[in-house]
Amino acid sequence: MNLKNIQTEVDASYLYKILGDNEADENVANVFHQMSEIEHSHAIAFLAKYDKDASHLPPPSGRAKTLHFIGKLFGYDYILGVLLDTEKSISSSVLSARKKTNTKESLSDTAHVTILKNILNNDKKVSGPNLARFEKRHRSVGGNALRAAVLGGNDGLVSNFSLVMGIAGATNGQKEVLLTGIAGLLAGALSMALGEWISVKSSLELYENQMQLEMEELETNPEGEEKELALIYMAKGIPEDQARQMATEIMQNKDHAHEVLIKEELGINPEDLKGSAMEAAVASFVFFAIGAIIPVIPFFFLGGMKAVLFSTVMSACGLFLIGGSITLFTGKSLWYSGFRQVLFGLMAAAITFGIGKLIGVSVMG
Questions:
Q1: Cα dihedral sign for 83, 84, 87, 89?
Q2: What distance in Å separates the CA atoms of residue 276 and residue 175, rounded to the nearest whole number?
Q3: What is the dihedral of CA 133, 66, 288, 304, to 10 degrees?
Q4: DSSP for 118-168, written as a single string
Q5: Alpha-carbon span 213 to 225, nearest angstrom
Q6: What DSSP state is assigned to residue 59?
Q7: pLDDT higher than 80, residue 175
Q8: Are 16 and 35 in contact (CB under 8 A)?
Q9: What's CA 58's distance to the chain center, in Å?
Q10: pLDDT tens profile 281-334
């Protein structure tokens, strides 16, 4: 019996039900509850292959319950983001396996996000605006902020751990290592913060410039913009007469027309303009610094090999926690991901420690 597949379906059913229970829009909540039922039926079907009934279904896993807790703290979009990422991964794996075995593709191979869209499209109670709201609201989620926090902490820990070990190997001096570790923390965190600020700010400025150009085109050539909008609708499969009528109605209000054009022609959503460059910079600084301080802490109190050993143990624990956190998004084994992260981090630190030893011996000799 493939317990992993059954657990995946049970967890998905559990999480979709949570999404439905916490969704304010009744129709979208209905979509989530239908998805929960679909996942539950998949789990029952897996059991039926082995002559087992629903009483043998396992409870939701610790990972699923942790995601539920995260949803309570940070909002339930995180849960949907993780589910969408998981479904895309499953779909990609199935399609890849079919190519290797030269078997025919099936409609069931597609990610469950397609099922979500199909349910929405076929549900007469879900209006066009609700569908657009659903797709717009969840298109960019995926636990991005939480994922950024995990990866930021990982970058800070691995880079500063390696730096600290390199200096410890070269000098064996407590003050030198401590100074270097703090300098590495500040330099790395500030660099990350500045990079994030520039990235977000540049994106916002690009969007604003594109929106301004679109407004100028709308004012100088409204007929051309109306034709473009009609063509966009026609490309979506809307009949020509209806597409032209929709475009004409939209163009009667310039502000509304501008809003529609930047969405349809430029692909810019208002949510894309709400990102704060300063918030992104501060978050990057904080999460990088949290990871970077871990290998430095022992050197506040100890020196020599004792500090190196404590720093290694603390960093290994931090790496394992980060690797375990990543499984919230990937669904992989906690132990596999955790120890893999530890292995790579220790290898990087060991290399820099060895190089530091060689440099230290060379300089001292």
A1: negative
A2: 38
A3: -170
A4: HHHHH-TTS-HHHHHHHHHHHHS-SSHHHHHHHHHHHHHHHHHHHHHHHHH
A5: 12
A6: P
A7: yes
A8: yes
A9: 27
A10: 888 888 889 989 999 999 888 888 888 899 899 999 988 988 877 776 666 677
Amino acid at position 181, single letter? G
What tokens were used for 326?
Answer: 């990543």
Token duo for residue 298: 């022992």
Residue with tokens 């410890």: 168
DSSP letter string, 266-328: S---GGGG---HHHHHHHHHHHHHHHHHTTTGGGGT--HHHHHHHHHHHHHHHHHHHHHHHHH
CA distances from 171 to 165, 189, 219, 346, 355 (A): 10, 24, 68, 19, 12
Nearest to 154 by CA among 349, 354, 326: 326
- Residue 261 corresponds to which tokens in the numbers above? 């054009």
- On whether the CB atoms of residues 322 and 161 are closer than 8 A, the answer is no
Amino acid identity, position 284: S
For the chain, the residue count is 365
**The tokens of 213 are what?**
């150009």
Instruction: Give Cα 184 distance to the centre of its chain.
Output: 27
Cβ-contact 189, 156 below 8 angstroms: yes
Question: What are the tokens at 145?
Answer: 């902020």
Phi, psi of 60 (to 5 degrees): -55, 145
Phi/psi at 29 (nearest 5 deg)? Answer: -60, -40
Q: Are 43 and 55 in contact (CB under 8 A)?
A: no
pLDDT in tens, 188-231: 889 888 887 887 777 777 767 767 776 777 777 777 777 777 77
